[in-house]
Structures are given as structure tokens and as C-alpha cells.
Amino acid sequence: MKHPENDKWLDEALSKTIGSKKSSTDFKAWKQKHPEAVEMLTSRARLKASTIKRPHSIRIMIMKSPITKLAAAAVIIIAVFFGLPFFHGNSSGIALADVLARIEQVKAFKCKGSFTMTGQMAPGKPYKFETRWTDLISQEYGSKLNIETPDPNGGQIPYAEFYVSPKKKTFIEIAHTAKKYVRAELDDDDAQQRQKELSRYSDPGGLLKEIMACKYENLGRSTIDGVDVEGFRTIDPNLGWGGLGFKDQQVDVKVWVGVKTRLPVRYENLTSGLDQMGNTTSQRFVLRDFQWDVSIAAAEFEPPPVPDGYAVLDNPPGLHDEETAIRGLKRCVELFGNYLETISDGAGAMGAILSAFEKSETPTALRLKEEVKGLIEEERLNRVSSAGKPALRLTWFYVELVQGKKDPAYYGKTVTPKDADKVLMRWKVSDNEYRVIFGDLRAKTVTAEALAELEKLVSK
Amino acid sequence: MNLNSETKLVQAAQNGHLESFGALYERYHSSMVALAYSMLADRDLAEDAAQEVFAIACRDIGSLKSKERFAAWLTGICRNTARQMLRSKNRDVTLNAQGSTKNADSEQHRADAIRRAVWQLRPNERELIVLRYYDNLPYEQIAQVLDISIQAVNGRLVRAKRKIAKYLKRNGLTGDDYETS
Description:
The structure holds 2 protein chains of 2 kinds. Chain A is α+β, with helices and mostly antiparallel strands. Chain A has 14 helices and 16 strands. In chain A, the strands form 2 sheets. Chain A has a 12-stranded mixed β-sheet. Chain A has a 4-stranded antiparallel β-sheet with strand order 13-14-15-16, with helices on one face. Chain A starts with 7 loop residues before the first helix and ends in a 5-residue tail after the last helix. Helices cover 70% and strands 0% of the residues of chain B. Chain B is built from 8 helices and no strands. Classes of the chains: A alpha+beta, B mainly alpha. The interface between A and B is large, with 49 and 60 residues.
């Protein structure tokens, strides 16, 4: 029997219906429409070509023809061609494209970072969450990330360590506050993904690209820790850290670049607004103390032995997926007696978890309340947020669905574990199919039509 | 163009040679329009997306470490660009079906049915079909763009066309009532 898909008619029909109306491939027209992109590419040639063979004579040349007497265009040509900074004027001496090109040539670097989140669990109940980290990133060896949190007695205590080796395809996490660890063998995709996730903590190239994609201003010259720098700033709300979007979000992002090195010296992102529960919240992310082109030994990436008494992490790392969601929902029932009413993210997620814990009288919650009695506030928050981590991961998965335009919905306000036939959570998996998690945490794929029927049972 | 000469073009573009980037643009422009079209279902938007893809590629080509995977890298940029366009326009992809009543013009009716058949495929199958039929791209280039083997292109194409044929048959359209040239 002839397979219908082999018929010539189908090929012709598809060509006729889908076929191009001969779109033009005109590179010349494209170049005219995208001069900035062209400039960025061709500036690499100039960077490579620029050699200051006789810098002394060039400085003499410029000093003999004072900058003030030169036309602005000529100054630009000299400065760009020789890679020299401006000495006067309001024009930027540094092009961020050049900074990016320099970053991409770096084989290894170190930096420090910090993240501070402040908000309200409920009116009159503020909280502050703070972490700091040191990151070591090497093209050859991978990534090593050490995270610390404030010690209630002063100073910092180890929070967690992460090691990714794309070469060895291993991932190791040692969570000190939870006294747990995990070692995982990764395939190529997971190793790349894990490296990418850790690099997000300290990815100056990626952060710079985000600024360059926005409207930004030059802040002029200043000094940071004795280093001459030039600053840049954007207030584009797309660079905010509120994953599901803070209301009335305000964003202030700055980067300072060393005048001599043309490499970042400091980066700051301050995002503030109202979280999902309507509480004022702010998040501040800083990268600083960069050491570029450090020489690194392989031994620096060897993880330490796991301390005695540490158990295997019960939530192994991995991409957030349906399993993450189900584990998170189970944890909500154990800890809070029910599902979270809504899914927030960032500060809102933390606030919702802490708030639900406060009200909860489940055996798990009561045991934990007993354990944390007498601890100071920061330590109590750390312990509770650690216990609620699976619920946090659930919110991260949900945010990924929103950002991936998977049309997710969550009905935790009205659906309980007893509602076996009611939709608790759903998201799109293909053009006409949705993945559904029911109140009893069964999961199933249904058509859009079937989902519409099921959702009639849910009060929204 | 073999992979070796393409790798050299990529290297030259990374060193700032604009004409080399132009050669890559000429080679992959059509496939990027097709890929974007498979996600956006709108030819004009797909052209815009492809323009943006090459702007991003021009800017970021320095960060591409595996030069032999230029096509797959470009594909990743294209998919992200199309997704962002969908998000920013807050649009769902809907087809401008002209209606499927018996009284509709039969050729238009067939074209609408074929479009629906293609757009009901899974995204990865739809990409393959549109890449193949948008501008008659050779299997070799499709394989490079989707980062799969030529054998996989062939096998998946057969399966996707089988699904399309089944869908069309369910909707009353077979080869019997289609005149071939």
C-alpha cells in the first residue's frame, strides 16, 4: 500500500502552502539597518590590529596637539584606533563592546558577590535574607562557588559549596547549614546547564550584554578602591530581578569598568517594588573584587572531603521539572497542612512560605518550631527556609513556565489534597496538550478541550 | 560549502572580518526565516526575527567557542528571539484560517487545512517541515541547523509527513483530489 506521505501531491501541497514568497537575502540592506552590530564586529579587528608600538611618541603627538584643538571626530578616531581613553569631555572613553570583547578573552577569573533581599512576611514583620559568595571560573576546569551567610555571632559562616567540572562531568554540592551533600554524574547537556546556572551568580559578560541591550548612560569617571573607573547605568525595568514581576518595579543597574584594564571592577543591580502579596520588597545584587586572568591550578577545583555526619541531599540537583513541582507540593502538605494558596517568587515566595509556617500546626511544623525555639531570627529563618526548600523549588519551576510562555495556572487557594479530581496545577506541553497535576498529586496529560472541562470543577 | 571552510568563515568573522559574516548571513538567512516562521506563523514577523537573529549573532559571535556548531548556535538565537517576540507581543500563535465551510473556495480550503495540519505538529516536527518546504533547503543544511544527522532528518521528515497526511485525511483531504503538476 502506498504511504500517503510519499505522494508527490503532499510535497507539492506543502511547498505551495508553506513555501517562501522569495524573501530577499540582502546583506547590504541588513548592514545599513544594523550599524551598531556591524560596529561591534568590526571593532574586534581594530582591537586586534591596534598595537601601541611607540606609546611614548603617541602621547607626545596628542599632547602637542592639545585635545581642545582637535575636532571631536578626530579625537574619537585616535582614541578608538589606539585604544586610548579620553582625557576630557563628556563622551565615553570606553565602549562596552570593547569591554565585552576583553572579557571573552579571559581564561579564568575570580570575583566576590552578594545578594540581599528585604521584605515583609506580613505587615509589621520584616525580614532580611543575605548571602555572599566567592566564585572561581575557569574555561579549563569549570566553576567553584562558595556561598556564606551572616553568622549571628558576627562574621560569616559557610552556607554551601558547589563544584562543576564539565571535563569530568561531575557536580558536587555541599550544603553546610543543612549538613547534606550530593555528588552527581552529569551528561554533556546537564554539565553545560549546571555550569551555566552557577555562572549566573558571576557572569559579567552576560550581565554586560543585558545592559548593552538597553538604553544606558555614561556616569563618567570616578575611583573605586583606588582604581580609576568609568561608570555606566541603566534603569530599564527588564533587568529587574523580580521573576514574576514586582508591581511598580524600579530597577537601577550600574557597572564600573577599569579605565586601564577595560574590564569590570564592580556591578550592582538594585530592584525594588511590591511583591505578589503587595508587600514592599527589594533585592540588591553586587559583584566586586574581580581578579582577571588569574593563574589557577587544577587542585583549586578539587572539592574538599564531605564533613562527617553529612547526609545525602534528598533533593538532588537538576533542572526544575514536574518532579520538582510534585515534591514541592508534597512538602507544602507536610509543613503547612495544605498547598500554598498562591505561587509567588523571589521575596514573595519566601514570605509566603514563612507566613504559612507561622500558621501551621502540622506535626512536622510543630517539631520544627520546637527545634528553632530560642534561635535568633536569622538562624530561625535559615532553618525554616531550608525546610521549605522544595516549596521554593516549586515556585522556581512555575516561574520558568511563566517565562517559557507555557500558560501555567495554579489553584492552591481552592484545591486541597482531598480533591483527587480537581486540577491543582497545569501547564502547556504542546499545541493542544496540557500536563495536569491533580489535588492528589497524580499527573496526566490532557487535551485543551479536556482541560477546559476539568477546570469547570475548580473555583477560581 | 563544507564545514572546514565554514569554520574558517566563522573564525574570520570573530576576528572582525565583515565580509565573512556576510557569507554566513547569505548561507543561513533563509533557514532562520523558516525557523522563525515555524514558531511565529507570520512571514513578516519571521523576516523581522531573522534580521534580529543576525544582529545578535554579529554582536555575540566572539563568544562562540565551538566554531563548527555555528548553525546550531544560530538556531538557538533564533528560537529565543522568536519566543521573546511571542512574549512581548503577548500573542498566541493563531493561524488566519479562512474558514472551512463547504462553500469556501476549495483551494483556499485546502491551503488552510494544510497549514493547520502543519501547525498542529509538535514544535520540533513543525520546524523540520517548515525548514524543508519553506525554501527547499537541502537535508545537509537542515541537519546542521537542527544539529541532527541527515538520517535523522530523513526519518523524522517521513514521520511528520505521515502525521500531516493522517490529519488531512481526517479532514477529508487526500491526494485524490489534488492535481499535481
